[in-house]
Here is the input.
Amino acid sequence: MARDHGLLAATALLALANGFFNPLLAPQTMAAVILLAPQPVAALPQALAFLSIVLGALLTLVAGGVPAALYERVLGRQPGDPGTALVWLCATGLLALPAIAMAGSLFLR
Here is the structure.
């Protein structure tokens, strides 16, 4: 059970990194936040940046959870199975590859 928490924490960190560093996701999430945010929030650039990072991370978590849910459903696993958490981590890692490359290029200069 403790191993599941570590996998889920790693999944959340990968999703957050994807929301923060992904060059492909940033323009879309920024545009979505500008369109959906109320006027006082849209006036603050820091709030727009924060909300776009959070939205990108949430979209990554949801998109990475789809293969995990399909895995759980097709194989008839119980909720909370370690295999499901591993599938979720791997799917999120694949979605976060552009962000990992971007972070690597920024930090390894």
